[in-house]
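thoughts on my protein:
***
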Amino acid sequence: MPLHGLPDLALIRPGRMHEATGPGRLAFAAALAGRLTGPVLWVQESRTRDTLCPQGLVAFFDPARLVLARPTGARAVLQVAEEALRSGAAPLVVAELAEAADLTASRRLQLAAGTGGGRGLCLLPQARTRPNAAETRWHCAPIPGSIPGRGRQLWELVKNKRGRLGTWEIVWGEAAWQERAGETPEKGPGGGATRPVAACA
């Protein structure tokens, strides 16, 4: 699916651990997967009610690339993500967490990513962040006013240990609205946009 306005991939460096929060965090992860090649390991706690729906991912990347792991317990999620990052077998490891990893756990993820050379991405509820070793943190939210078959999100880089912060308006659907020809962005995040990454109960 055409996407317009994506941030430079160099801001989400390989060999590092990153975080995404906000209601658009699944779309952020799916869009990142679509910009990379190779397998995508997605780690969810086994008691998570909603699992990823392949039909919701196909617009971003081939679901055949997806490897879904569902260990039991939050600690096991971190352990699986750490081992996968250290192995380097997957260029992207996504871990859904109920809260941000603490300083010790996030350092372990960072070291593992540095060893394996892949990207680690932790997805967090908006209110469950904390200071840790993640190199970047992104807040992702829909922008009101999207219509069916099209969508807009505001991606804010709110933490960057290596430099600048910034904001990007992401557009998808109908050839990214003809590359945003004549489009006037609305201000601020909020609800109402079509959710591009579905969950299956």
